[in-house]
Write a structure and sequence with these properties.
This protein is an alpha/beta fold. It has two domains: 143 residues, Rossmann fold; 62 residues. The strands form two sheets. The chain has a six-stranded mixed sheet with strand order 4-5-6-1-7-8, with helices on both faces. Strands 2-3 form a two-stranded antiparallel ribbon. Helix 2 packs across helix 3, helix 3 crosses helix 4 and helix 6 crosses helix 7. The protein is globular and about 55 Å long. This is Multidrug ABC transporter ATP-binding protein.
């Protein structure tokens, strides 16, 4: 797949469909049994990509016994960035006022933001986000999506997974997968047109049924 810079691509499908496996393969931490994956012109997981690719896992990736600022500065140092870069990342995710708080004292939504701050350190060219809004309240989900589009507006390519179909409409491009198979790769509008419905949940179901009845 090829996504232009400054775009948000949604990887959507039910739990267990293979979203995380695909994302891990793109980042380079998943063994690929056959074929190959190229990211920004380099083999997935290769050394030149370490500063170019940010990855946010489903589980929080920050240390609970450190403050938000300490976490951000630690991750910045790992990539050779200075304290000012860490502070910008904290501000970008809206945690400037909580920078001195221990991660252990943060709400679940704030922890997700702290993890995101570490993932966007240095403004990576590709940002891979694995279900970043799962379990978040509607207001926080909306704020996070605004942040994703802000990052895309600054030139980043965003690949974000979700099993919540109402988030599909927030993306420029959709990859719909089921049981490891790609069943759609198009814009939200084109997916709706192909399925003959404006409801993306219903569109996904119709595409699954069409795949099941298609001749082998």
């Amino acid at each position: 797949m090829h996504d232009p810079a400054g775009s948000v691509t949604g990887l959507l499908g039910p739990s267990g469909s293979g979203k995380t496996t695909l994302m891990r393969a793109v980042v380079g931490v998943q063994v690929v049994k056959s074929g190959s994956i190229s990211v920004l012109g380099e083999p997935a997981g290769s050394a030149p990509l370490r500063r170019k690719v940010g990855y946010l896992t489903q589980a929080p990736s920050v240390y609970a016994d450190l403050t938000v600022r300490e976490n951000a500065r630690y991750f910045a140092a790992l990539y050779g960035y200075d304290a000012a870069t860490a502070e910008r990342a904290i501000a970008d995710v809206g945690l400037a006022k909580a920078a001195r708080q221990l991660v252990a004292t943060l709400s679940g939504g704030q922890r997700s933001r702290a993890s995101l701050a570490c993932a966007i350190m240095g403004e990576p060219e590709l940002l891979v986000l694995d279900e970043p809004t799962v379990g978040q309240d509607p207001v926080l989900r909306d704020e996070l999506w605004k942040q994703f589009h802000d990052l895309a507006g600054r030139g980043a390519t965003i690949l974000v997974s979700s099993h919540v179909m109402d988030e599909a409409g927030r993306c420029e491009r959709l990859l719909l997968i089921r049981e490891g198979a790609l069943i759609a790769d198009d814009t939200p509008a084109a997916v709706r047109e192909r399925a003959g419905t404006d409801d993306l949940d219903e569109a996904f179901l119709r595409l699954i049924k069409a795949q099941e009845v298609a001749p082998a």
